[in-house]
Design brief:
Keywords: Kinase, Repeat, Transferase. This protein is of the alpha/beta class and about 750 residues long. Helices cover about 40% and strands about 15% of the residues. It has 29 helices and 25 strands. It is globular and about 95 Å long.
Length: about 750
């Protein structure tokens, strides 16, 4: 599972691929910029068309641009065009994006292309990691298959190929795909039959992203891996090069400053560096304020890995993704890695063989085991990385199968390791509750990716641990589970392209629990499987063979009709589905659609509001408007200025603060405007209790790493970050409930 790098020196030289160190192209682009500048300086005044520079001039540009002294033979060039010697930092500063608008274009013959080539592990245990490296910018994907296997075990091979084609389409929907069939040297291979199977069973001719083999008139490229004949893969190489050169990312115009930062980073030859190191380099090239933006850009290109959800993740920039893969594959390991770890004498010396066995069988990991598997290196970062990608969750239950001295140690659930586990008793218990209120998440329009069910298990297990008090631990297996949220009990079941959410008959708040489960799924889907199509079906409480699309039911209820068409054939009575709507909408993931618990907080004499919401409208208006709505729904009086679009006079805002029990500062990227500083100063002068909430969603415009809020805060307010624990703002239904309970309790107890 590792990358290696090859360079194509010239598109016309198919045999010139070779492994080399990474080259961002900064120097080549800088030379071209200088050439364009000099061409403008040397052209005749009457000429409207730029003239090409003499070859000896263009060859000498690099020496001038980067301050390299030339021999006396170069004197005529220096006399012909006078250019000052410029250090690299100054080159990067001067040659910004606007400078290369006439150079950045589609790759042409003679230009260099750098390929970073990833060999994705085929073992299914690694499928849970694909979203991390199958980025939307994609690149070119080669799907390699054994032609012998396709001809002998057609069904299995077609299923395997279909999985890979669907996975690429999901995560990189516009990326070119090249099908490569191996074992071309075998006498039994009939390439025409192979092509017929691909066309008939995988509809490859209908897939616009698949690159055809136009020379041989096939939909794939047959290859003899063992051949030593020069140029035996020339058609494949040509297809790769042509596909790569047509990518939008290849010709995208970006600042030379960014290229120089990337160049310097990769020359450090480190697995990872602190964020501050990148910012220092970017500042050196006058792009310090663009550090997050440039890292996001290169992350999407797959050049490095940088996540922003927490300060720990934001502070680490992984320059060698292979380091990250190596660490993760020690936990989410295939059979080969498992044998190596099981037979490691150091595992025995550390007394962790039992811990490792429990991880493989039950998916439960001790902190001691994780430290061992990761060589005690960057453990906090790796934990948060797995949490953020829903590959791991806290396991807040004891584990009897562990050694006694570690049963109460910090534990984690690695749900993807449950994939092939079974539990006969659990199967029987899930079968016994099939008559309960049931929702079906249906993915038959496309496919159900590997990892969706495991991530839902991970979120449910964490939520169960947060809310349960004395109840047993969730019962989990590869495709089934029974879990409690307090007094609400339900089963989860994965069947083909469906996930079934089944409430145990007679359990508490079935509609509300289903709403929470759908919110959890939507959170996992939006974070990891963003473009995955799905439908929500409701199973009839009267007849388990009848299902109805949720949206049809909503429309039918609004129209007050008695019947609605079911999925497949037949009709269903609308009234039969009333139990699903006892908590309002099942799909609204932010707004309150059902009844909510009312908070009774008396206001002292002279006060009119429980809380004053102070925020920057431009990047936190939506969050604070939603917060105000939800607090009001729960019986609180809230002062927020969204009704007047932020145009209130200063004295009116000061009055609002004086009339409020608490002052809430909502932290966002540009929060400390003059108006917010004035409001904060007023709250401090009035000795108001100050609550702090921060934007926690990296996809929102107002998000910034928490350290940025501290840096930007006025000196008089920096002590707040030591005295007050900031709460991460939560929009998702399953997280928002706990958020508002905690916030209301802080408002209640504020003095």
């Amino acid at each position: 599972m590792g990358p290696y790098r090859e360079r194509v020196e010239d598109l016309s030289e198919l045999g010139s691929w070779r492994e080399e160190e990474f080259d961002s192209g900064f120097e080549r682009q800088a030379y071209r910029v200088a050439a364009l500048r000099m061409a403008v300086q040397t052209e005749r005044p009457r000429s409207k068309k730029r003239q090409s520079l003499p070859k000896r001039v263009s060859q000498g540009i690099s020496n001038v641009v980067f301050g390299r002294r030339r021999s006396s033979a170069a004197r005529p060039f220096a006399a012909e065009v006078q250019v000052e010697l410029v250090p690299e930092a100054e080159v990067a500063r001067r040659f910004d994006m606007a400078e290369i608008r006439n150079m950045a274009g589609k790759t042409q013959s003679g230009q260099k292309i750098i390929f970073t080539i990833w060999d994705y592990a085929g073992q299914d245990v690694f499928y849970a990691l694909h979203h991390i490296f199958l980025t939307r910018e994609g690149g070119v994907f080669m799907v390699v298959f054994d032609m012998q296997e396709l001809l002998i075990n057609q069904d299995q091979a077609v299923e395997y190929l279909s999985f890979w084609l669907n996975s690429i389409k999901l995560h990189a929907p516009t990326a070119p795909i090249i099908l490569v069939g191996t074992h071309y040297d075998e006498a039994s291979i009939d390439v025409n039959e192979v092509d017929d199977i691909l066309v008939e069973y995988l509809s490859v001719h209908e897939n616009e992203n698949i690159v055809p083999n136009s020379i041989a008139s096939f939909s794939f490229f047959p290859i003899d891996n063992m051949s030593r004949v020069p140029g035996h893969a020339s058609e494949l190489r040509a297809a790769v090069e042509a596909s790569a050169s047509s990518l939008e990312a290849v010709s995208r115009k970006i600042s030379l400053r960014w290229l120089k930062v990337l160049d310097d980073l990769l020359k450090l030859d480190c697995d990872y560096v602190p964020f501050d190191t990148v910012r220092e380099l970017a500042t050196k090239y006058h792009a310090g304020d663009q550090t997050d933006e440039l890292l996001s850009f290169f992350h999407e290109l797959g050049m490095l890995v940088h996540l922003r959800a927490t300060d720990t993740l934001h502070d680490k920039v992984v320059l060698k993704p292979q380091w990250l893969l190596d660490k993760l594959s020690r936990v989410i390991a295939d059979k080969i890695h498992v044998k190596q770890i099981q037979n490691d004498r150091e595992l025995q010396k550390a007394g962790l063989r039992k811990d490792f066995a429990v991880l493989r069988k039950r998916g439960i990991a001790t902190l001691s085991l994780l430290r061992f598997l990761w060589g005690d290196e960057e453990v906090d970062y790796l934990r948060e990385f797995m949490h953020d990608n829903m590959l791991m969750s806290d396991w807040n239950f004891s584990e009897k199968s562990l050694p006694r001295n570690r049963q109460n140690e910090t534990l984690f659930l690695v749900s993807s390791l449950l994939k092939n586990s079974t539990d006969r008793k659990l199967e029987q218990d899930v079968a016994s509750v099939q008559s309960g209120l049931t929702c079906v998440l249906d993915f038959s329009e496309f496919f159900l990716p590997d990892g969706v069910f495991a991530r839902l298990l991970s979120l449910c297990a964490r939520h169960s641990g947060d809310l349960s008090t004395g109840w047993g631990a969730p019962r989990l297996a590869g495709h089934q589970a029974i879990i409690r949220f307090g007094l609400s009990e339900f089963a989860l079941e994965e069947r083909s392209n469906q996930i079934r959410l089944i409430m145990v008959p007679g359990t508490r708040d079935p509609a509300s629990t289903l709403k929470t489960l759908i919110s959890m799924f939507r959170g996992a889907r939006d974070a990891v499987f963003k473009d995955l199509p799905w439908q929500l079906h409701l199973q009839s409480p009267r007849n388990s063979s009848i299902r109805v699309e949720y949206d049809y039911l909503v429309d039918a209820r609004k129209a007050e009709v008695a019947e609605v068409a079911s999925v497949g054939v037949g009709n269903a009575m609308v009234a039969d589905f009333d139990p699903f709507f006892e908590d309002g909408s099942l799909t609204d993931d932010e707004r309150d659609t059902g009844s909510v618990e009312q908070a009774s907080i008396p206001l002292p004499a002279g006060l009119e509001y429980h809380v004053f919401l102070s925020h920057r409208q431009v990047d936190a208006g939506d969050a604070c408007n939603l917060m105000a709505e939800k607090l009001r729904n729960r019986g609180l009086h809230v002062w927020v200025d969204q009704e007047t679009e932020g145009n209130l006079a200063e004295d009116a805002m000061k009055r609002g603060i004086r009339k409020s029990k608490c002052y809430l500062l909502f932290l966002s990227k540009t929060v400390f405007s003059d108006a917010v500083k004035m409001e904060l100063q007023t709250a401090q002068q009035e000795a108001k209790p100050i609550l702090v909430v921060h934007e926690s969603d990296p996809s929102r415009i107002g998000f910034a790493p928490f350290s940025a809020y501290i840096d930007a805060a006025p000196a008089s307010a920096k002590h707040l970050f030591k005295e007050t624990e900031s709460m991460p703002f939560q929009r998702r239904l399953y997280l928002a409930e706990a958020f508002y309970k905690e916030l209301i309790e802080r408002i209640r107890s504020a003095r």
